[in-house]
From TrEMBL:
InterPro entries: HTH_LacI (IPR000843), LacI/GalR-like_sensor (IPR046335)
PROSITE patterns in alphabetical order: HTH_LACI_1 (PS00356), HTH_LACI_2 (PS50932)
Database matches in PANTHER family: HTH-TYPE TRANSCRIPTIONAL REGULATOR GALS (PTHR30146:SF109), LACI-RELATED TRANSCRIPTIONAL REPRESSOR (PTHR30146)
Keyword annotations: DNA-binding, Transcription, Transcription regulation
Protein name: LacI family DNA-binding transcriptional regulator
GO molecular function: DNA binding
Residue span, HTH lacI-type domain: 7-61
Organism: Nonomuraea guangzhouensis
DNA-binding is among the record's keywords: yes
């Protein structure tokens, strides 16, 4: 059992056998919950001597000046770049930003939305891929619908199929297709892909766009390895490709962070980039310009995306009309790609 001095909401949810979001709704009184579930949560909270976080309670009183930002992982330069834009825009409006990382846990994302509802945040921003998961879609709708009906504001970055809210939409599919065409123009015909988690819309769009552009030229992707959107994921994925025998002249990593890990793995195995194999990524996070060699990528204006999603969340006008602002990616060819040997 958890130390009573450090009991968390997750401890209560686990003890009651319910989701984190359900426990949050019961203890914060933000929505109706089945009586049997409510009884279990309240009994578990009593048994564990759970006390709501005093800091969170204080934030409730400042709710009109609070914006909640939920991202997958703020340590990822993609998300930190967008968060910087959000915070800059918030500072101009004297707003407090609450930032949470879900680590791509769909249940945790829903729970955080529930917590922000309880704290009556002025707006909620979801930064990052939607989940290709019907259960997540239904659970998120349960949380967001009453919040929106009560006048709350929600805006998202990236594709969330089921959320009919204002959206900053990076054109991931189009950007990946443009990158594929640029690599084809260099003469490449044999490709491998380091893909992220298949349940994320960003992965579906980037891998799909890349495949479609190659197919239009009569070329197929030979090898695909899935892994986490991280430096370690890229390293492990590239290592797996090398272990099975890399049969490609160009490796496409669906994020720059994965490409950084892939570069390290290639070097450890004695392969030169781009002489032995070309390498490309996606996002144009700042560090990739300083790699040796600098990384070919699809550039997205990350801080601008943060500023724009904040503006959408706080905009006036009709709340019944969804606005989508599309963000085009720009292919940047650098020294990590060259024509095949």
């Amino acid at each position: 059992m958890a130390d009573r001095a450090h009991v968390t909401l997750r401890d209560v949810a686990t003890a009651a056998g319910v989701s984190l979001a359900t426990a949050s709704r019961v203890l914060n009184g933000t929505a109706k919950v089945r009586e049997d579930l409510r009884d279990r949560v309240e009994a578990a909270a009593s048994e564990l001597a759970y006390t709501p976080n005093a800091h969170a309670q204080a934030l409730v009183r400042a709710s009109n000046e609070t914006v909640g930002v939920i991202c997958h992982d703020v340590s990822d330069p993609y998300f930190s770049g967008i968060a910087r834009g959000v915070m800059r825009a918030a500072a101009q409006r004297d707003l407090l930003v609450m930032l949470a990382s879900t680590f791509r846990d769909s249940a945790r994302e829903v729970a955080y939305v529930s917590m922000l509802r309880a704290q009556r945040a002025r707006a909620i921003l979801l930064i990052g891929s939607g989940f290709e998961d019907r259960r997540w879609e239904r659970a998120m709708d349960v949380e967001l619908r009453p919040y929106l009906n009560a006048g709350g504001r929600v805006a998202v970055v990236s594709r969330h199929r089921s959320l009919r809210v204002d959206t900053v939409l990076p054109e991931n599919r189009e950007g990946a297709a443009a990158l594929a065409r640029a690599l084809l123009a260099l003469g490449h015909r044999r490709f491998a892909v380091l893909s992220g988690p298949p349940g994320l819309s960003t992965v579906v769009d980037r891998v799909g766009g890349f495949r479609d552009a190659l197919a239009a030229a009569g070329v197929s992707v030979g090898q695909v390895v899935e892994g986490p959107f991280s430096r370690e994921g890229g390293y492990a994925g590239a290592s797996a490709l090398l272990d099975r025998g890399l049969d490609a002249t160009c490796l496409f990593a669906t994020t720059d962070v994965m490409a950084v890990g892939a570069l390290a793995a290639l070097r450890e195995r004695g392969l030169r980039v781009p002489e032995d194999v070309s390498l490309a990524g996606f996002d144009d996070i700042p560090v990739v310009r300083d790699l040796t060699p600098p990384l070919t990528t699809v550039a997205l204006p990350l801080e601008e995306m943060g500023e724009r999603v904040m503006a959408l969340a706080l905009r006036g006008g009709s709340r019944g009309r969804r606005r989508i602002e599309r963000i085009a990616g720009r292919v940047v060819l650098r020294a990590s790609t060259a024509g095949p040997s």
